Amino acid sequence: MSERKLPEGLHIDTLAVRAAVDKSQYGENSEALFLTSSFTQPDSETAARRFSGLEDGYIYSRFTNPTNASMEMRLAALEGAEACISTSSGMSAVLLLCMGLLKAGDHVVCSQSVFGSTLKLIGSEFGKFGVHSTFVPQTDVAAWKAAVRPNTKLLFAETPTNPLTEVCDIRALADIAHNAGALLAVDNCFCTPALQRPISLGADIVVHSGTKYLDGQGRVVAGWVMVVFTSPRLAVIDTSWVESISFQAASRPPLTIKLTTAPPAVCWRMASSCCGWLGRPG
Ligand SMILES: Cc1ncc(COP(=O)(O)O)c(C=O)c1O
Q: The whole model's pTM is what?
C-alpha cells in the first residue's frame, strides 16, 4: 500500500485526518488495522527484490506495517518531514537517532534541561562508547555556540523542556549547527506539530514521545524519529540512514493502533488546551 496522494497546500487539520497509506482493496471508510508480524510475497522474484530494497513492499512488521506506516506518514506530513520511523517509545527514538548518527570521537551539544533519561543517555551511556558531550543552559544561545567543536555532529534540544518548560530559539540553534556542519535535533513532544514545527525553523530531525500531548489520553507508549533530506548540508542523512535505523528498530510500537486517531484529535486538543491564549500556526 502506497502513500495516499493528496493535493499540495492542505491545512494541518486536513493533513491530520487525510495523510495515510492508501485504502486497501476493500475501500474501508475507517482505517484498516494490519495485525500481522509478516506479509506473504506474490513470488520469489518479488520477494528477492523487496528484501534487497529494489522494490517497495511490506515484508516484516519490524521494518514496517501499513498501520504503523499510516501514523508515520501522518506525523511526517504534520511536521513537514520527509521520512518518519516509529519506535517503541520516545527514548527509543532518541536512542535510534543517536545510534544512527554518532560514532566514537564525535561530540554532541545538548541542553542541560532536557528530560532526565535523554540527559543520561547522551551524557553517560554514549560516553561509554567514546561519544563526547557538552551540556549548556537551554536559553543561552552564546553558550550553545561556544560549546561547538570541530567534531560536533549533533545539537540536541527539547523545547519546551520537561519539566521546567524552558524554551529555546530553534532557528538560532539550527544556524549554529549548520555553520558547524552539524545537525539539529529537536524533541517536540510537549508542543506537538499543532503548535510548533521545528523543521520549518531549520531543524533537521524531530523526535516525539507518544505519551504526552500527541496521544493525550494515556493509552500507549510509542515514539517517532523524523528527518528531512533535502538540504545539501545533510549529506550525512540519506535514505540509507533511515533504513539503518529502521533495521535497529527492534522497537516498533505494538502497532500504533490506538494512535491512528491521535493526530486528527491533536490539533483541536492542543488548541483547546491552550484556551485561546497561545496562537496556533496557520
Ligand atoms: C520531553 C520528553 N522526551 C522524551 C521522553 C521519553 O519518552 P518515553 O517515555 O516515551 O520513552 C519523555 C518522557 O517523559 C519526555 O518528557
A: 0.88
